[in-house]
Design brief:
about 270 residues, 9 strands, alpha/beta
């Protein structure tokens, strides 16, 4: 059994586990995500065998006491060949580190990964009620506004103001003239100026779901188009339905949409 010790936030964890799951499938090994055994209970995987708090706690302490080997892909220059050999030779092992990446295998088993991370039934019921309240047959744009830690990450390079986000949405609307557009805005800024968006887009149905991370992810995955700063959150949302995604890297640049398979290798 390969126990995946995740780091970072929810969607970082999801992608990290997906890489190790794909490697395990290719080599006939079972895998278990330690983070989804007790945290982020929004997905099918959380209800599968071994994904529970007692297993998480037992593995955590076994690794801490040196009873389980650990393969740490924690640096870009990690000796991947040696670590993979250790994974093959060990009956039980903990794998950790953001550099545990097998892009080709991830894509090969992507549909299985999506099945594991299908949304929980209760969560689908909650998000379904909101979606049912929206006007049908409209173009649905999901906008992810991330601030918080982005004020410091990469020197604040992807920390954008409401004015800049509004300008980006205006570009999108110019490309969809004559179409009815819904704007779903999710994010982590409690001081977001919601009125500024409603006033800027009176022709749109503007919605601020304010759900938990699983609900927001689910709602974004149900949009026809996605926009936001580079983030694993929008990337994973785009993965579910191969939704076109515009990563806003320069708030002054024209919009450019890509797909999951092209973007996920760019996450650093």
């Amino acid at each position: 059994m390969i126990f995946v010790r995740d780091k970072g936030r929810m969607c970082n964890n999801l992608l990290q586990y997906g890489h190790v799951y794909a490697w395990g499938r290719e080599h006939g090994r079972q895998t278990m995500s330690m983070r989804f055994a007790y945290k982020y209970p929004y997905f099918h995987i959380c209800h599968t065998r071994w994904h529970n708090f007692p297993t998480y706690a037992a593995v955590k302490w076994a690794a801490k006491l040196g009873l389980l080997p650990v393969a740490s892909f924690d640096r870009p220059d990690a000796d991947s060949d040696r670590l993979e050999a250790l994974m093959l030779d060990s009956r039980h092992i903990v794998v950790e580190g953001w550099q545990a990446r097998w892009y080709d295998l991830f894509l090969k088993y992507k549909e299985e990964i999506l099945q594991l991370f299908a949304f929980d039934t209760r969560l689908l019921q909650t998000t379904g009620r909101l979606l049912d309240s929206l006007q049908p047959h409209a173009v649905r744009l999901g906008l992810h506004i991330r601030r918080g830690d982005y004020a410091r990450w990469h020197g604040g390079r992807f920390f954008f103001t409401d004015r800049q986000y509004i300008a980006q949405v205006r570009q999108f609307l110019a490309l969809h003239k004559g179409e009815q557009v819904q704007l779903l805005i999710c994010g982590n800024d409690p001081t977001l100026d919601e009125d500024a968006y409603r006033q800027a887009f009176p022709q749109c149905q503007v919605v601020f779901p304010k759900g938990n991370p699983g609900e927001d992810l689910c709602l974004l995955s149900q949009c026809h188009w996605l926009m936001g700063p580079p983030s694993t959150f929008t990337l994973v949302a785009a993965m579910y339905r191969d939704t076109p995604l515009c990563w806003i890297e320069n708030a002054e640049a024209p919009l450019a949409f890509s797909r999951f398979d092209q973007l996920f290798t760019q996450i650093k």
